Amino acid sequence: MRIRIQTFIISVIVFGLCKPILFAQTNSSEPDIRHRLEMIEKGQAEAVRAELPSLMTNYQNNPGVMYLQAVLTTDGTEAAKLFQNIVDNFPKSEWGDDALYKLYQYYYSIGLYKTADQKLTQLKEEYPFSAYASENNPAIEEKQAVKEKPTVIKPKEPVPKFATNFTVQVGAFSTLQNAGELKTKFEKEGYQSNIFTIVSHGKKLHKVWVGEFQTIDEARRFNAEIKSKFNLTSIVVSR
Fold first, then answer.
1. Are 185 and 201 in contact (CB under 8 A)?
2. Per residue in 164-182, pLDDT tens?
3. Which of 31, 40, 84, 132 is disulfide-compatible with 101, CB 3.0–4.6 A?
4. Residue 138 within any structural domain of the chain
């Protein structure tokens, strides 16, 4: 009888010690996506890309890993599919509004402005408290432009040594002449600009990009200045 009681006590003690350990393992099982996104912004995309296969194996159907995969996908169409998958299947996750905003950026960048506007409207309706939902509020943009003057790289200045991950797209045209005219307009104002041409559905689209920025916050502040100064519909895009 005494032996049975001792065995029971030992079992309770062992279980009591193991339970916190198991709980700690469960709490630490989520991958740190934010940190990896910061690495990408700092020009360490290849290091994160090397981790991706392992993350996708260990965290299947994890919306954060899906978002990371989409950000690292160089094919815009494929990236859009991944972002849409997050919006459709994981709308309540912390990555729902991020993915929807990326879709808005993508459709705007290829000239599908109506679809882009639909995504932006959906973002504001479904995620009213998201930082992205208020980014296109003219009042907020005007305040940001007054408070902080963005860093602008002018045409004659040397190209910075760090990776430039973001720029502001001020237009997308089917004809190169129209894109060239807008590019010239910004260069006359002292802003560095260039034309980036893609082929979408067999048609060429000429995008006009202005400015080069290392962080998305710098690009957003500059985007506010562009909209206020030139009254244009511009958007921050990843380079």
1. no
2. 578 898 888 888 888 888 8
3. 132
4. no
The domain that holds 174 is classified in CATH as: 3.30.70.1070
In the chain, DSSP assigns E strands to: 166-173, 193-200, 203-213, 235-238
DSSP code at position 169: E
Query: 187 with 209, same domain?
Result: yes
Q: Is residue 70 part of a domain?
A: yes
pTM of the model: 0.51
Residue 100 within a domain: yes
User: Mind listing the pLDDT tens digit for each residue in 77-97?
Assistant: 888 889 999 999 998 888 989
Distance between CA atoms of 38 and 175, rounded to whole angstroms? 36
Between the alpha carbon of residue 21 and those of residues 30, 32, 165, the distances in Å are 16, 20, 41
Question: What 3-state DSSP class applies to 121?
Answer: helix
How many Å apart are CA 167 and CA 92, to the nearest integer?
A: 29
d(CA 113, CA 106): 10
Residue 147, in any domain of the structure: no
The count of other CB atoms within 10 Å of the CB of residue 94 is 12
